[in-house]
Request: fold
Amino acid sequence: MLTEMTNTQMRYIILALALAMGIVSAQAQSQPANLIPAPAEYNVHPGTVSRDKMNGSHEKVRISEKAMLRRLEGRKLTDWQLKSAYWLEVGPKGVKIEAADQEGVFYARQTLRMMAEPDSMVNCCTVLDWPRLRYRGMMLDVSRHFYGKDFVKKQLRMMALLKMNRFHFHLVDNPGWRLQIDTYPRLTQLTAWRPQAYFWDWEKNEIGGPFAVEGTPGAYGGYYTKEDIREILAYAAERHIEVIPEIEMPGHNYETRAAYPELACSLPKGGKDPWELCPGKEHTYEFLENVLLEVFDLFPSQYIHIGGDEARKNNWKVCPYCQARMRAEGLKDVNGLQSYMIRRIERFARAHGKRIIGWDEILQGGLAPDATVMCWHGTEAGVQAAKEGHDVIFTPTHYYYLDYHQDPDQYRPVGRCVTLEKVYSFEPVTERIPEADAHHVSGVQGNLWTEHVQEEWHAELLLYPRLFAIAETGWSQADRKSWPDFERRASALSAAARKWGYRVY
Ligand code: ACM
Ligand code: ZN
Reply:
């Protein structure tokens, strides 16, 4: 009987036996050409299917937690992982999806979309997949240069495809306030516009330049109305992306002080540091709380990013209001004053059902336990924060600062050279974090600061393909990562992304 079999039939029988005996594990299988992030388990089956059977017209979906738990038998997943997990079968007649939640179905469809991209025929296969880390983010600085809502939506589409789920919206900073706030209209009327388009033509010697009143002919800038934000939020929510707004304090507030000078310390010309709010004055808290109330109203995220980075604190050492506050609260130095402010805002946020995230400087002087630390100075602060029981998001400059160049010859290079391989090499769950605290590693995020990024195409060139690497580190199980395989997949996905209209380096 064996002699009557074709070679192909023989191969299928051997493959089926090997799969049944567990000889051919998911690890031994290569990934589809351009699938990023790599799924937890992927197995090829005999046969191929045409991509027109993968576009939803031949799709069977079952949402059942019980069924999904059966599929995941033996694998220990947390509740949030289970929500995002999916099982997928691509067969000759079409596609079957199983998931515990709509979110899992959504991620299964992203996998299908990527798989179907380059070829007209796709290998039949099964995929069982779930995320490694719960926070898989991208930050966009829209203050240094302003990007319209269509550009934001375009990046949200790519994030969704990469199974990224947090968009950190850096809405306010020294060079421009970009969010409509009804209680304080001067923020956008006076400081969302400036005479010079390019940031470095505006900021000289770390001192910001002048702003332009809204409506000034030829002025550069812009801001998001509340309607714009609602549109972006709805677009993100459809893609299972949470938008986390950042309202910076107490540093990086040059624009806030330009609109409302009374928020500065009481010193001649506002003191030496032109960026900082006065944490001594009660009026500053009234302002911040009123702003935050509008932000809480608008953004459904449980999180509010309150900045906290790079306050120099020189003014505070001499401002009578700051000094009085330090005496009244028994604070021994200006770090204590910063800590007082952050803790006070944290209590305010908590009273409104929100939790704060801050850059790692918020650890200075002690921090409220509920706060999440966004670690950007290397990784040491993140290790310390996790050990102290804080959730941590890793955005280390030397790996995840996407404004840094990928190649010294590229357009307007700044910072260190951060290649795709360098980005890919970052491991957030470092052995320096004791195993018992490893659950505090919430995830990873790529930051696109935009001091030198004036054009949308330039922003995309810096984001892609490096964001692919961050997505894989956030989603894929650590043992599924492999640089040579990723490099091959990133190249294929880059080609697809170019076809979809992205600029990819
Ligand atoms: C930062 O780069 N200042 C967070
Ligand atoms: Zn002060």
In short: The chain has two domains: 29-129, 135-499. The chain has 19 helices and 17 strands.
